[in-house]
Model the fold of this input.
Amino acid sequence: MTSSKATAQTTLALTPLDRVIDRHFPRLSNPERHDEAARRRSFTEAAIALAKHYASLRQQARDAESSRKRYEAIALAVQQLRFAMEGLSQSELSKLEAEQSAAHQAYVGALDEYQTCNLGTCHEQSDEPFGPRPAGRILERQDLRWLEQGAKRLCAPRRRGRPENVAERWAARQFVVLCHKHGWTPVRVAHSGSETQQADPQPSDAVICLAAILVAGGEHEVRAKSTALSALKPLRDKYPHLEWPEDSFDHPYLAPEPNEYTVSLKELTADHHHGIGQLPDFTPTNE
Done:
């Protein structure tokens, strides 16, 4: 019993990526040793590249969420500032403007001659008065309102429910194409039986390999298998896939044309390949 548990844990380990692929990548029935090694090596290199691209997409998503939170904080802070300033009486507003001017004069007075000259030049070049904008003018021109509204436009609230796994869905689609191109067809999400009828299927080799790619790209190992399974299941249905040839952007005056594929877990079929193909024979025939 202990031995079987240890074997299962070893089989389902998700790191390092190259060893996971070595354990779970399918072997051909009658392969040439050299061809099998080259096929496995090519798949591993492509999987490592996919993991790096997935990690980049995850970082972009994290950066976007961090920016959203900062803009959200700015919108709230500016709104509170605007409400507070709009609540000031005229005498309070005048006192605030006087202290604004005094604070600025104190700041300028502490600068040396060179720094003062630079500050004056900056104001002159920007066509701004030498000094802070008075609080009353800020309210009059509604500067805070537009700053608040601008920040709100940049922090659109997230949709309710779980966040969309855009990077994971993209990685799963790329992974399925990668499998088909390396002879791993069909791509299964469960080991045996009817995949659609199993309530809790055991993850297949493909699910484990994709999970290992996600882990290499930064996903937590505890969530990786369920995330991979959820990303692969919808791909039973066909979806379009475009690929640009490697040399398609080497000629800037030519518009690159992609190769078009229809993909599912079952198969990959080519709809259109880049290139003009075989031209008809226009040589006149003797009558």
About this structure: Strands lie at 239-243, 259-263, 268-272. The chain has ten helices and three strands. Residues 1-11, 275-280 have pLDDT under 50 and may be disordered. The two ends are 85 Å apart (CA to CA).
